[in-house]
Specification:
The protein has 315 residues and is α/β, with parallel strands linked by helices. The chain folds into 3 domains: 105 residues, 4-hydroxy-3-methylbut-2-enyl diphosphate reductase, catalytic domain (Cobalt-precorrin-4 Transmethylase, domain 1, 3-Layer(aba) Sandwich), CATH 3.40.1010.20; 83 residues, Rossmann fold (3-Layer(aba) Sandwich); 84 residues, Cobalt-precorrin-4 Transmethylase, domain 1 (3-Layer(aba) Sandwich). Helix content is 37%, strand content 17%. The protein has 10 helices and 12 strands. It has a 5-stranded parallel β-sheet with strand order 10-9-11-1-12, with helices on both faces. A 4-stranded parallel β-sheet has the order 3-2-4-5, with helices on both faces. The chain has a 3-stranded parallel β-sheet with strand order 7-6-8, sandwiched between helices. Helix 4 packs parallel to helix 5 and helix 8 packs parallel to helix 9. It starts with a strand and ends in a 24-residue tail after the last strand.
Length: 315
Amino acid sequence: MVKRVLLASPRGYCAGVERAVETVERALELHGPPVYVRRQIVHNAHVVRDLESRGAVFVSDELQAPPGSVLVLSAHGVAPVVYERAARRGLRTIDAACPLVTKVHAEARRYAAAGYTVVLVGHAGHEEVVGTMGEAPASTVLVESVADVEELVVPDEQRVAYVTQTTLSVDDTAEIVDALRGRFPALHGPRTDDICYATTNRQRAVKELLGEVDVLLVIGSANSSNSNRLVEVGRAAGVESYLIDDETAIDEQWLAGRETAGLTSGASAPESLVTRVCDWFRARGVTDIAPLRTVVEDVRFRLPVQVQRPRPSAA
């Protein structure tokens, strides 16, 4: 059993997740239950269950929300066709998409309108990828690996642009973009990296942790892309790394013969789960639990206008 636990910093909720969860909470306050939510608002089972207990109803698509009801769209963004179908049903739609995802959608639309083939670097089937592909489906192709880049065929090699999913591995994405530049020297891309600040920061924090630990635990749900990338970062460095939904998923055999465990959490995992895992270690006699270093993120996103509280009028 380990004797020490080091916490990665930063970890857990990012500004986009905070905004999305608070959007559902505010919608419930304003309208009362039920408030319908298209797909999981964020990819964390604990968050979803908590919101369900307050009156949120999660549906697989907008067609399952009753006509005229309130529908919150998830943090991952949706294709334009979703808004169109929601409007036809008279749904009162509240868009909780992360602004950084919205930025990628805008880039894809702009490149497609200018006549470029848009190469989207991402994971097939992920909700964010489905939404971005829907912005310009006739002009967008998905690549998941360097091998995909090598097989890519486009109408005009001088008019190729790329965008990326926001929750990818920083290192893997850099390799794919380098391969794209090798294939298409005239490649256009976003002015700033599409991978979100929180994904980048959490991967960097894990890398700093890895030289100090014998095993890494990442708190996050199985469908959380950014959480899975944190596990991959650990394994790529040769450290045994495991994804856990909460403390009940910990296998004590993982910790046998280990001196120091590292602990982090994905951007959609609440800090309460970190507390629970730390308490699990304390219950087994581990008293040395501390962050490797403390980093504070100060990014904040405004809530959707439909759920903003009115400012008090001047006296």
